[in-house]
Amino acid sequence: MRSKFVAMNYLDEGGNPEGGVAFGQGFCISWQRGPLGRGAGRKPANGAFVEDIIAAALNRLQFYQTSKFACHENAMAIAALEGALGYLDHRTREREAREVEGTHAI
């Protein structure tokens, strides 16, 4: 059974994602607030990205697969998370090619 968690997601005045939090039993995530920018004006990250959280869950499942808890369901979940990371990486590369990565531009 999945444990309950609380999530709060915020928008800026323009309707753009502007950070948020998610927390539950054993975890607390503070999401990236605002775009990082581009070039010389690029800022350091101030929160987590979806990709980082997926990668952490993927790492944990891969760890399980090296133990007595290895199973088909874990392997399928690993494949799904790897797929999710692949799609998100594709999105980032496509945005970078259009030179809008790090901004709120669509």
- Record the strand order, biggest sheet: 1-2-3
Task: Give the distance, in angstroms, between the N- and C-terminal Cα atoms.
Answer: 38 Å
Mean pLDDT: 97
How many β-strands, per DSSP?
3
Strand content: 15-25%
Order of helices and strands: EEEHH
The shape, in one word, is globular
Helix content: 25-40%
Poorly predicted segments:
none
How many DSSP helices? 2
Task: Please summarize the sheet with the most strands.
Answer: 3 strands, antiparallel
Q: What is the count of structural domains? A: 2
Oligomer: single chain
Describe what you observe in this structure.
This protein folds into 2 domains: 1-48, no CATH class; 49-99. 39% of the residues lie in helices and 19% in strands. A 3-stranded antiparallel sheet has the order 1-2-3, with no helix packed on it. The mean pLDDT is 97. It is built from 2 helices and 3 strands. It starts with a strand and ends in a 9-residue tail after the last helix. Helix 1 (50-64) runs antiparallel to helix 2. It has 106 residues and is of the alpha+beta class.
List keywords for this structure.
globular; 3 strands; 2 domains; 3-stranded antiparallel sheet; 106 residues; alpha+beta
Summarize this entry quickly.
This protein has 2 helices and 3 strands, in the order βββαα.
Topology:
Layout: E1 5-11, E2 17-24, E3 27-31, H1 50-64, H2 72-97
Antiparallel strand pairs: 1-2, 2-3
Helix pairs in contact: 1-2
